[in-house]
Amino acid sequence: MNSRERFFTALSHKEPDRVPYNAFLCEAKENELQSLMKNGEDYRKFYQEDIMFCEFGITEEVWRKISFENLPLPSKEQIARAKAEGERLKAEGTVTCNAYVPGVYESLKQIIGDENALVLIYEDPEKLAEMIEKIGEWRCEIAKIHAENGMDICFIGDDIGAQQSLIMSLNSYREFYKPYHKKLVEVIKKANPQCKVAFHCCGYIMPLVPELIEVGVDILQTVQPEANNDLKLLKETYGNDITFWGAIGMQSVFFGHTPEYVREVVLETLKIMSANGGYIAAPCHKATEDIHIENVIAFYETMMAFGAYPRPGTK
Fold first, then answer.
1. Residue 23 class from Cβ within 10 Å (0-12 exposed, 13-18 middle, 19+ buried)?
2. Where are the domains of the chain?
3. How far is it, in rounded angstroms, from Cα 184 to Cα 157?
4. What is the pLDDT of residue 143?
5. Which of 48, 54, 160, 268 is most solvent-facing, going by the fewest CB within 10 Å?
6. For residues 32 and 288, what is the distance between their CA atoms, to the nearest angstrom?
7. 3-state secondary structure the chain
8. Crossing angle of the two packed helices 125-148 and 114-123, in degrees rounded to 10
């Protein structure tokens, strides 16, 4: 199987030849890993990554400067470049995904601050709803562009999980944010019915999973195990209804541990998450500059050696 065949088989909750996987690396780690490659070979191809990202111009630097008067969209030139890159990667058998753009709640708190974004739920819900509507429409425009450009995965999300609980009540989520998450999925699917929707959420997400399934999300990322998420329960309860992407703790596994420890955790996670497909293996978060490159390599090498069906994670 190539990466596309493997990915879509796993997304249909069937077992491909091996578990699809990728790693999220900061630019410094990408450069460090690339410098270790012989003859300039792309490290992503050498380590058999299945998902490649296409940048559409809404970078983190651009996003940090947003306001209600400045909600930018990619230029025609940026869209065209991303489309050409996506078509090239697809022709090579690779799965394409847009670079993540923070969601409705994340963008709101970037503009008005964390405290105000939560306090307005109680002090001025009408004003909050107006703000959310404006940001929600902007995010829908960006998502539509990604989908129309032919991405295999449209990467959306919102960080509404803390380490032990959701940041807001489930009722508040349902009232203010769930309608726009539903609309985002609808916009994406209408623009490109073949596109799979991946929803990013850090932290504790157990109560959120059925809500995301209900609105039509295909993939949940990050599935952070150190944030009180029970991987076995998630897989047993929702494994037939949604694909999990991640589930290997960055802060609990890659920081301050040996490559041997990384390997053992990856093997154990594969045993829990891989049955009947529906799993994309990955570290939960981006590997930052203080991660030892040996631990990233350990993840890749473990997936290459022990990610094959029928028993991923088995030595």
1. buried
2. 3-306
3. 10
4. 96
5. 268
6. 12
7. CCHHHHHHHHHCCCCCCECCECCCECHHHHHHHHHCCHHHCCHHHHCCCCEEEECCCCCHHHHCCCECCECCCCCHHHHHHHHHHHHHHHHCCCEEEECCCCCHHHHHHHHHCHHHHHHHHHHCHHHHHHHHHHHHHHHHHHHHHHHHCCCCEEEEECCCECCCCECCCHHHHHHHHHHHHHHHHHHHHHHCCCCEEEEEECCCCHHHHHHHHHHCCCEEEECCHHHCCCHHHHHHHHCCCCEEEEEECHHHHHCCCCHHHHHHHHHHHHHHHCCCCCEEEEECCCECCCCCHHHHHHHHHHHHHHCECCCCCCC
8. 120
One pLDDT digit (tens) per residue for the chain, 315 residues:
999 999 999 999 999 999 999 999 999 999 999 999 988 899 999 999 999 999 888 888 899 999 999 999 999 999 999 999 999 999 999 999 999 989 999 999 999 999 999 999 999 999 999 999 999 999 999 999 999 999 999 999 999 999 999 999 999 999 999 999 999 999 999 999 999 999 999 999 999 999 999 999 999 999 999 999 999 999 999 999 999 999 999 999 999 899 999 999 999 999 999 999 999 999 999 999 999 999 999 999 999 999 999 999 998
Position 60 scores a pLDDT of 86
Q: Residues 98, 100, 106, 108: is their CA dihedral positive or negative?
A: negative
Q: At what angle do helices 293-306 and 259-273 cross, to 10 degrees?
A: 40
Task: Work out the angle at residue 157's Cα, subtended by the Cα atoms of residues 47 and 176, and round it to the nearest 5 degrees.
Answer: 170
Say what the pTM is: 0.97
Q: Which residues pair with 70 in a beta bridge?
A: 67
Give me the amino acid identity at 207.
P
Non-local (6+) Cβ contacts of 269 within 8 A are: 225, 231, 247, 248, 281, 313
